[in-house]
Amino acid sequence: MDPVTAIGVASTAYSAIVKGFQMGREVESMAGDLGRWMGAINSVKNGHEKAKKRKFGSIEEEALETFAAKKKAEKMEEELRQFVQWNYGVNAWQEILRIQGQIRIEKQKEEDRRKKQMEDFLVVCGGILGIVILSGIIIYMVWVAKNGA
User: Fold this and answer.
1) Are 78 and 16 in contact (CB under 8 A)?
2) What distance in Å separates the CA atoms of residue 135 and residue 132, rounded to the nearest whole number?
3) Closest CA to 100 of 37, 12, 19, 20
4) 3-state SS, residue 57
């Protein structure tokens, strides 16, 4: 997701989170919004790093867009961190970040598992295809030998 789109997603989720906190909702009941917001913030930060490395397109324009999105994301993150710490204690934000890290690790492991599964599937399919082709060649050679080409 590009940083500009990601900051839009983050802003929407952030508004829902702030509104939820103002209405007295618990963090647990806003897990979806928090997850969407954190994912979008991560996309903004990663997008900014990728944009700095790109060699094609309007580098200046893209750099300014991603920089602005990154700064807006940092401001939202700081405001949300302060709000969570104010309402749930000093260690609450660290707990959220720890959980986020665990979830990110689990998702990466699942993605790696799926990639491995796909590679294994392709190897098996390649093997079967190789056997079918080799069998076809052998059958053809036997047929040619019997019928005296």
Assistant:
1) no
2) 5
3) 37
4) coil
